[in-house]
Hints:
about 300 residues; alpha/beta; TIM Barrel; nine-stranded parallel β-sheet; 10 helices; 9 strands; about 30% helix; globular
Amino acid sequence: MTGVHIGISGWRYAPxxxxxxPEGLAQKNELHFASRAxxxxxxxxxxxxxxxxxxxxxxxxxxPERFVFxxxxxxxxxxxxxxxxxxxxxxxxxxxxxxxxxxxxGPLLWQFAPNxxxxxxxxxxxxQLLPQTMAxxxxxAEGCDERLRKPGYLDMPKRGKLRHAVEIRHASFAVPEFIAxxxxxxxxxxxxxxxxxxxxxxxxTAEFIYIRLHGDAELYKSGYSAEAxxxxxxxxxxxxxxxxxxxxxxxDSTKAKKRTAREVFCYFDDDVKVRAPxxxxxxxxxxxxxxxxxxxxxxxx
Length: 301
């Protein structure tokens, strides 16, 4: 199950210190520790503001080999502009240094606001703009603002694919037309467990699976019980093997094509009560994926 990545959404939280992070660990070393306790991390600082090439390069350096980062797209695009006139903001994002993550770059996550309703024409335009290859990303980045045109801003691999995942939070998206668009552009629908607050669906729309676990019983707060973690273990194992889940909750009744395997990315975001890193590690152990990890929550390296 080398294609399964289990981790956390973000890593810099004050309540985690002297708990998940061992006492005495310097703040500058938190990513170094976290990236050895879980197998993947979702970068969410990029959601709030454009990061810099130097920062992405430092994150790359802090994480071990074969580690994978997912990167959250800017809320300026999804929440502020609400997908209107986003060509330059997209270019700015792709010119901001994200490719300094090199081979450790995983999927790009695009999260939409709870009051953002499905508009088929506007949403398809957004999907059309998302680069699917490195060459397309470079052409997109060339349209960035002058302030971002610093040495190396177009440094990115000449070849390779980009993967995108979409997290929705409004019931208007629960229509087959939306799922058809995602499949057309090979974009993953995020399987988002939100304790029932927002729509939940498990439609398979891409070659990979993206899961966000925000809380089993209470959003952002409740941890995951042994029974709940076992539920996700069974699902992840089937999805990773390219199989369908028999009791899947879907928007579209059309079944996804069978595959020999699917890469799976799963992130815990129930961080308020310091549950996320412990739940992530518990699921890693359930899946028997912890052999290569060098750290355990709360214990020094």
